């Protein structure tokens, strides 16, 4: 320390009065730190906040998904199940709600019930179901990936039926960005909440960890003998030897994953109907909009019809 610096230090200490020189701790500035000794953690897929731990952020960065246990209460899930039942029985009618049936039973003349509905989409106009998208415990985690100014791009409640033997209850491996060509992709996240115990028997989610670091791949209808459900597109050129993780989840568990993560689900080999609730969220720009491609059916333009 030169004479002038020492004098300035004595002056400062004199003003502070109660501090002794030993109480002053020197911290290096950026100018005194060698670039080779400074290695800050780089996060590409998560945002700075106090919700996720360092370990959770690192796991998502590396794998593209993160499971949060017991996030949604049993009470909320029961309310959502009750509302879904009313929609299936046509006790609730919404103009823009999309109701889908499994291809193996779609032509059967069955009474309206949960047994004939495979999926409902765009439930944002149903106040009870959309309440799921506004749950504080869901939003606080969504904002870890999107930031605070967000909207639900798409909403679904999937009711995977018992497989009829044609294996049509499967969902081929795909990337969500194929269906929702919006960006930036690193600020989009899907929240997938189990509404009951889910494992490989009733068609749990399967993910290919780390595939979110790649690009959007070409999709098409898989060549399945038993048929394929409408808009159930699958990736054509993924590495079949890639590691897979089957996510066994309990009621209320929620997995958050990146829109480029390759994922799908197996067939439901039980006699029950496996239910999950899914919103996909994206940040809103300064103009109040989400930036999306003009291509109507994914980047490759596949039309919503059965092959």
Automatic annotation (TrEMBL):
Q: Which InterPro entries match?
A: PhyH, Phytyl_CoA_dOase-like
Q: Name one GO molecular function term.
A: phytanoyl-CoA dioxygenase activity
Please write the reaction equations for the catalytic activity of this protein: phytanoyl-CoA + 2-oxoglutarate + O2 = 2-hydroxyphytanoyl-CoA + succinate + CO2; hexadecanoyl-CoA + 2-oxoglutarate + O2 = 2-hydroxyhexadecanoyl-CoA + succinate + CO2; decanoyl-CoA + 2-oxoglutarate + O2 = 2-hydroxydecanoyl-CoA + succinate + CO2; tetradecanoyl-CoA + 2-oxoglutarate + O2 = 2-hydroxytetradecanoyl-CoA + succinate + CO2
Asked if the Swiss-Prot or TrEMBL record annotates the protein with the keyword Zinc-finger, the reply is no
Q: State its Enzyme Commission number(s).
A: 1.14.11.18
Keywords noted in UniProt: Dioxygenase, Iron, Metal-binding, Oxidoreductase, Vitamin C
- Indicate the enzyme's highest-level EC class: oxidoreductase
Cofactor(s) this protein requires: ATP; Fe cation; L-ascorbate
GO biological process entries: fatty acid alpha-oxidation
* Top-level lineage group: Eukaryota
Any one GO CC term of this protein is: peroxisome
Pathway involvement? Lipid metabolism; fatty acid metabolism
Instruction: Indicate the family of this protein.
Output: Belongs to the PhyH family.
Protein name, please?
Phytanoyl-CoA dioxygenase, peroxisomal
């Amino acid at each position: 320390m030169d004479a002038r610096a020492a004098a300035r230090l004595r002056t400062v200490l004199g003003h502070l009065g109660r501090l002794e020189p030993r109480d002053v701790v020197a911290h290096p500035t950026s100018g005194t730190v060698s670039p080779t000794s400074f290695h800050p953690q780089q996060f590409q897929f998560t945002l700075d906040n106090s919700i996720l731990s360092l370990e959770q952020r690192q796991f998502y960065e590396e794998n593209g998904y993160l499971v949060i246990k017991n996030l949604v209460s049993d009470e909320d899930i029961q309310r959502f199940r009750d509302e879904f039942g009313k929609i299936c029985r046509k006790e609730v009618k919404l103009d823009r709600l999309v109701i889908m049936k499994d291809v193996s039973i779609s032509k059967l003349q069955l009474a309206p019930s949960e047994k004939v509905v495979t999926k409902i989409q765009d439930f944002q106009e149903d106040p009870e179901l959309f309440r799921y998208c506004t749950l504080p415990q869901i939003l606080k985690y969504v904002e870890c990936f999107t930031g605070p100014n967000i909207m639900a791009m798409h909403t679904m409640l999937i009711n995977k039926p018992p497989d009829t033997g044609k294996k049509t209850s499967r969902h081929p491996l795909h990337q969500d960005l194929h269906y929702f060509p919006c960006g930036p992709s690193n600020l989009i996240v899907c929240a997938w909440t189990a509404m009951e115990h889910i494992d490989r028997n009733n068609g749990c989610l399967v993910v290919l960890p780390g595939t979110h670091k790649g690009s959007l791949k070409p999709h098409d209808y898989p060549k399945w003998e038993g048929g394929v459900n409408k808009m159930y597109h699958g990736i054509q050129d993924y590495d079949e030897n890639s590691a897979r993780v089957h996510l066994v989840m309990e009621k209320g568990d929620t997995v958050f994953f990146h829109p480029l993560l390759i994922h799908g689900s197996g067939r439901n080999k039980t006699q029950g109907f496996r239910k999950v609730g899914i919103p996909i969220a994206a940040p809103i720009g300064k103009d109040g909009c989400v930036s999306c491609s003009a291509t109507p059916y994914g980047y490759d333009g596949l039309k919503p019809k059965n092959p």
